[in-house]
Amino acid sequence: MSDALINGLAGAGGGIIAQLITYPLQTVNTRQQTDRDPKKDKKNLGAFQQMCQVVKQEGWERLYGGLTPSLVGTATSQGVYYYFYQIFRNRAEEAALEKKMLGHGDGSVGMISSLIVAALSGCVNVLLTNPIWLVVTRMQTHRKESKRSLSDWRLPDTTEQKMLSTFEPLAYGTSNVIQEVYNESGVLGFWKGVLPTLVMVSNPSIQFMLYETLLAKLKKEHASNGVSALEVFLLGALAKLGATVVTYPLLVVKARLQARQVKNGDKRHNYEGTWDAIIKMIRYEGLNGFYKGMGTKIVQSVLAAAVLFMVKEELVKQTRFLLTKPKPL
């Protein structure tokens, strides 16, 4: 089994576990990002309070809206990213060794090379998985009504009306979203928000640049004992924190573009593209609009990244151990 495949599978496994743990926070954060009315009282609610509000008004299942496509997307995204990351990383290491043989450098991959490797991996990942994340965003931002209006049924019997009024609306599943997006914009509609998402590859690029740099220094300090799972957890959290603060506004723009557009005649809430969204957000919401829900995102992404890195490193370590373990005679 190649090293790239080991890292790809380990990344997918780590991503799934991290997603399961932090998904309710992710749902709340997506709703915060796509909230276009600054006058709504819910903007003052914290992440935990908003989760309680969703559970009370819509039920527990809405905190996990889109979980199935999200898990598919996470496994695919992390697997693709780590697979190509390891391939590009191996090429960068080979190039660094060749330069060392020619008398240039010390044979290690520098920060710039690490940044390029992460960026290339991110671009491949975005182009392949953007449709999945668009579906997830639609399902996370879908708000389910708890009851139907009695007038909607138009039945003469009052008792039957009351009974039917407690029924839930039709499910808003993956197939519904796919059909909705296709009806709106055709096949290209599944790549809405791809431009800010491609720019967003700077997030994992910055993250991995920080992570690899800090990890290399830590490995030198603990050359004999190795790096513990807790240290990897803390490094992953610190690297993700720095990357999230820098790139968060792009994440908000992407979520706005991928969510269902408001078709009520209010042009402030209907975006025609990336630049249109940016201009309207600046004009009607100010700079604060680009940082809606950042506190929730920091908690969610830092926790998810820390868990992902810890699980991935352990899976890689255990897989390599099992593959190199001598078979009994």
UniProtKB/TrEMBL annotation:
Keywords: Membrane, Repeat, Transmembrane, Transmembrane helix, Transport
Taxonomic superkingdom: Eukaryota
Compartments where located: Membrane
Keyword DNA damage: no
Membrane topology: Multi-pass membrane protein
Organism for this UniProt entry: Cicer arietinum (Chickpea)
Main location, first listed in the record: membrane
Pfam families associated with the record: Mito_carr (PF00153)
Solcar repeat start and end residues: 2-91, 109-217, 227-318
Entry's transmembrane regions: 109-128, 232-253
Similarity annotation: Belongs to the mitochondrial carrier (TC 2.A.29) family.
InterPro entries per UniProt: MCP_dom_sf, MCP_transmembrane, SLC25A32-like
Gene Ontology cellular component list: membrane
Record PANTHER family: MITOCHONDRIAL NICOTINAMIDE ADENINE DINUCLEOTIDE TRANSPORTER 1-RELATED-RELATED
Keyword Cell wall biogenesis/degradation found: no
GO biological process: nucleotide transport; transmembrane transport
Stated name of the protein: Peroxisomal nicotinamide adenine dinucleotide carrier
